[in-house]
Amino acid sequence: MRVSERLPNLLTTGRLVVSPFVALAYLVLPLSQASGLAAAIFAAASATDFLDGHLARRYNLVSNFGKMLDPIADKTLVVIALLAIIANSGMNPWLIVPSVAIVFRELFISGLREHMSRSGADLGATGMGKTKAAIQMAAIFLLLAAPAIPKLSEIVGLAGLALLWMAALLSVVSAANYFRKALPHL
User: Fold this and answer.
1) What separation, in Å, do the N-terminal and C-terminal C-alpha atoms of the chain show?
2) What is the 3-state secondary structure (H, E, C) of 9-33?
3) pLDDT reported for residue 2
4) 38 near 5, Cβ under 8 Å?
């Protein structure tokens, strides 16, 4: 199979471009329809997060552009989806607290990685960070989808909330681990 050398970067760029539509769906559709559409967009965009890196590594298509854009696209998707969830929750503190922890971690690690790259050190993704990302994506998907599933809305929402808190805990622990690794270079 021949993979276009541009495909991983196109997938990453696509994720970045569709991210705002997760939130914009709520501006044009009733809640149940918006939730279904937002969840579908989020699921498709999340799939590209796995696929772009997999293709780039497997077919030796890793590029500086992709390495720069991928974390931006990931964080944009997560932050926009969390904002949409919080806005549609009536500012529920049970959603705000873990969301703040997740967003704080993402911004902190981005800044830390940028600083470390200037000094020639690399803070690559860890197993815990990848686990956190997977749990976070599942949580956000469930929280987006819950209002679109009337008979299971409460159960799906509670499952999403539990996973969001788990992702927040992993966010804090992984941020501490990254900071500990970076400390000798600071």
Assistant:
1) 45
2) HHHHHHHHHHHHHHHHHHHHCCHHH
3) 62
4) no
Q: Which residue has the tokens 């914009």?
A: 24
- Residues 123, 113: contact at Cβ < 8 Å? yes
CB burial readout 38-74, b (16+ within 10 A) else e: bbbbbeebbebbeebbebbeeeebeeeebeebbbebb
What 3-state DSSP class applies to 156? helix
The 10s digit of each residue's pLDDT in 107-164 is 999 889 888 888 877 777 788 888 999 999 999 999 999 999 999 999 999 999 999 9
Long-range contacts of 69-75 (CB under 8 A, 24+ apart): 69/9, 69/12, 69/13, 69/16, 70/12, 71/110, 71/113, 72/16, 73/12, 73/13, 73/15, 73/16, 73/19, 73/49, 74/15, 74/49, 74/133, 75/106, 75/107, 75/110
CB contact at 8 A, 31 and 90: no
